[in-house]
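Sanity check

After download, print the first record. It should look like this:
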Amino acid sequence: MNLSIIIPVYNEKATIEAIIRRVLEVKMEEMGKEVIVVDDGSKDGTVEILQRIAKEWASPNLKIYFHAQNQGKGAAIRTALNYISGDIVIIQDADFEYHPEEYPLLVLPILKYGADVVYGTRFLGIHRAFLFWHYMGNKFLTFATNLLYDSMLSDMEVGYKAFRAEVIKQIPLKARGFEFEPEITAKILKRKLKIYEVPITYSGRDYAEGKKITWRDGFTAIWTLLKYRFKD
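Expected structure tokens:
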């Protein structure tokens, strides 16, 4: 089996080179690995760093693509999905909130228990004590998801998810921004796919450190959950 790691990037010049290096260094027993980076119109120097990496590293396991304009995280993920070749797909944020060294933990339920999708859960593993209202917003959105779709997830909004490639390829995705998480979750649950959760380490950032999601995205998430409850 092979693993495809998708890294959507927007204005992460301080961390992008280090996170790509960490991802490439992760050892996956008996699994090949490719890394697909999509820069989503960065304006802070991230593009120049990625152009240098593409030229200097020249790794066959690393593919880098660029959006001319900022379109959103969901759009960057959708672009990357056009280029994956692996059997399992993991989405890796371009900062240090999630730890690439835990990839074996994420793929284990797929390899051993026949899971279709694996969600990391930030609230059951080691985690930095992060923003209270962000935490409450996550709890509310997860509760709304469970209520609408008769599920028992503990962390719907988590960015660390692993998928069987054939599963995520067959789901029609429309999200352009942070509504990717509720959209993919709604469509997975409506298809009655087999979801497992695993505790992950979470080093949450605050807004001064570059966190981008805001309370406005919470309203978009609620609307997305309601919309896809009744349409695909």
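If your output differs, re-run the checksum step. Summary of this record's structure: The radius of gyration is 17 Å.
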